[in-house]
Amino acid sequence: MTLHRAAGGLRILRYTLPERTIHWLAALTYCYVLLTGLAFYTPHLYWLATLLGGPPTSRFWHPWIGLLFFLAVLWMLRTWIADMRITSVDRAWGRAIDHYIRNEDEALPPVDRFNLGQKYFFWVMLWGGALLLISGAVLWFPERIPWGLRGIRYAAILLHVAAALLTIGAFIIHVYMGTAMVRGGFTSIIRGEVSPAWAKAHHRLWYERVTGR
Ligand code: HEM
Question: From the CB of 70, is ligand 1 less than 6 Å away?
Fold first, then answer.
């Protein structure tokens, strides 16, 4: 049920248990590939691989866990595709972004389940993840690329690093927004629920749609 009464008052279901499970699978797998990837990227961070079970172990699991991360994001796509489409409502919200920056949320046009920033984040992780997987496949089995086509290997290295940097930037903003900026957001991805006041303040169209109020 979307709306129910709990000890602290009325609550609205924002994330179901399967949604939260897949979110945390994506988060954990991303953190693992991020840390092992940083270890391979620079000798200054090589010690990270030692902490994570040793360099050969990290090298073995990095591509497999990366694949698992991408599958988790594909699952998100299947579940949230309707919620992630960018609409005219989002474009209006984007044009009023100045109010968001100045903390004048009441002056922003109301949005549905996710705002434009959340949608952009999702698409960056999906397409960034796809690029990481494609370029990563070349680096996973480099011996399969004939020496004459070694340009593909060099391109894959560049693409892998560029896509990783793109997702890292998005990830840092996502974690900061989810934990420090938007109070109540973090509890929602842990417990699944938000208060009607939170839903009305941050996602009014979604609030009206799911509660019928
Ligand atoms: C430790 C890392 C992470 C933390 C602390 C975190 C936190 C959160 C929080 C608090 C929300 C709820 C936001 C809301 O409904 O207002 C959320 C939603 C979401 N998370 Fe994460 N997350 C993490 C990693 C990731 C990763 C790696 C992905 C990769 C795809 C991801 C994808 C999403 C998506 C698509 C949503 C729904 C839309 C959005 O709020 O952006 N998260 N996360």
Answer: no
The finding on whether 115 has its CB within 6 A of some atom of ligand 1 is: no
Closest residue by Cα to residue 14 from 212, 201, 190: 190
Residue 194's beta-bridge partner residues? Answer: 12
Nearest CA to ligand 1 atom 5: 175
How close is the Cα of 83 to the center of ligand 1, in Å? Answer: 14
Q: Does any domain span residue 188? A: no
Residue 209 domain-assigned? Answer: no
DSSP H helix total and E strand total for the chain: 10, 3
Tokens standing for 48?
């990270």
Domain count, the chain: 1
Residue 24 lies in a domain: no
Rounded CA separation 53/203 (Å): 43
Q: What is the pTM of this model?
A: 0.94
Q: What is the pLDDT along the chain (213 residues), one digit of tens a residue?
A: 577 777 778 899 999 999 999 999 999 999 999 999 999 999 999 999 999 999 999 999 999 999 999 999 999 999 999 999 999 999 999 999 999 989 888 899 999 999 999 999 999 999 999 999 999 999 999 999 998 998 999 999 999 999 999 999 999 999 999 999 888 889 999 999 999 999 999 999 999 999 987
Q: Whose Cα sits closest to atom 40 in ligand 1?
A: 118
φ, ψ (nearest 5 deg) of residue 194: -135, 165
